[in-house]
Fold this protein.
Amino acid sequence: MDTAASANRPIWPKDARAACAFTFDLDAETLWMARGVSEPVALSQGRFGPVEALPRILNLLRQNAVRASFFIPAWVAQHYPDAVRAIAADGHEIGCHGDEHERVSDLPPEREEQILLKSLEVLTSLGGKRPVGYRAPAWQFSANTLPLLVRHGFDYSSNMMDRLSPYLHPPVNGRSLVEIPVSWVLDDAPFFMFTGQRSIQAPGPVLQGWITEFDGITELGGVTNFTFHPQIIGRPSRFACLRELIDFARHTPRLWIASLGEISAHWRRLHEASTAR
Ligand SMILES: [Zn+2]
């Protein structure tokens, strides 16, 4: 292998060659509310997430000893407090994800900050721990998002789509956020979310695509950052995909499966150590 490339390779804990995170956006009804939906049947699709799918997902994660990251809108936490408590009780990470899944790019700066503070307060009191991670609803930023996250003590963002490995954002007032990039390719919504505009895809080929993407990122030493929605991945035919993916990841040699908070903390330590040298 070429030394320049290997010198640039991320270094993962315990001699792992790559990392993998299972993340879940527990949007419930807000995924639909944010699209202007108020009709009860359409909203009930969102309710499927916390009520029907979440207990099964938590059980699967427990059986496989996987620690995951859950991003929860404040509205959802207030309407399903037991769901938040169950996630926290199993040792998973909880991160901020707006209030009613509003697009921050449409909001005035004061409103964006109010929502961030509300979500920190609601999730800290229900989850018992102050969130350190932020995922924007619909993966959209305003010009103020990153400075706001730094100002309110966040450690990482999981929103950008420009890399396969984490990196540090340019510092704001001397502090940098870690970015743990995502991709629509590793998200369940583009394949399975049904809004009446196109047909639902069959789970088998989607699972195959995810495994191929995972293999490629693992070979390159990056982070496979899966983004799932309990209301979407929790349908039995797709839950089978999730089970297979977790099984596949667990049987992949030298792979570090961790929460985004753990990945971010590791990346920051590594970076700070390398700049101190
Ligand atoms: Zn969401």
